[in-house]
Write a structure and sequence with these properties.
By secondary structure, the chain is mainly beta. Helices cover 13% and strands 40% of the residues. The radius of gyration is 35 Å and the shape is elongated.
Length: 199
């Protein structure tokens, strides 16, 4: 705002205020909702992936519970499970994933196309704290990451050996930390092809 001062000699000087005038805004400032919408979309996407993953795991045999005294498959004696090793890693949801790696050999006369194992985690009183039944998966490659495949993708021929991995999204907090007990409940096989010629 300008103010005019008159001096005795007839000179008029305009004084200009250097204080800014406060002018009310014409309307309310609109809020930027984009970050909130993106955050909600990400949360919904993560939830959907988690639900689909759980459903996929249940459809692949995970979640199935067999009795602790379920009978072993008759061919189980021909499939020793050795070299057990356990490890853990963190998942994207901030939880822990537990891995049980091992080695299987086919000492029988049949080609194995599927193996279902029961895994029993025990507590300090040696009671079963967690009971899971899973399909065994072979380690197809280790670099640049460990890739798994079902036994049916690479059947285990007589005399052959293979490394395997079982994955647990959660392990009971009552688990005593010892290696779990592995029991082979079901084995899918086919008769090995004859190798000799008859004349």
């Amino acid at each position: 705002m300008a103010r005019v001062n008159s001096f005795g000699n007839g000179c008029k000087i305009s004084l200009v205020s250097i204080v800014p005038e406060l002018v009310p805004s014409a309307g309310k400032e609109e809020r930027n909702w984009l970050p909130l919408v993106v955050a909600i979309a990400v949360v919904l996407l993560v939830a959907a992936v988690a639900i689909l993953s759980l459903e996929h795991n249940h459809s692949n045999g995970k979640g199935e519970v067999e009795p602790v005294n379920a009978p072993l498959d008759p061919y189980a004696a021909s499939l020793p499970l050795t070299r057990l090793a356990m490890s853990e890693s963190s998942n994207l949801a901030g939880g822990k994933v537990t891995y049980l790696d091992g080695h299987i050999a086919n000492l029988g006369a049949r080609t194995v196309t599927g193996v279902t194992v029961q895994v029993l985690f025990r507590d300090v009183a040696h009671e079963v704290a967690q009971n899971e039944t899973l399909p065994l998966k072979f380690i197809r490659m280790r670099e640049p990451y460990i890739d798994l495949e079902p036994v049916s993708a690479a059947p285990l021929k007589p005399g052959a050996e293979q490394d395997f991995r079982l994955i647990f999204d959660a392990v009971s907090p009552d688990w005593d930390g010892a290696y779990p007990e592995l029991r082979i409940l079901r084995v899918e096989t086919k008769q090995a092809a004859a190798t000799g010629f008859t004349g």
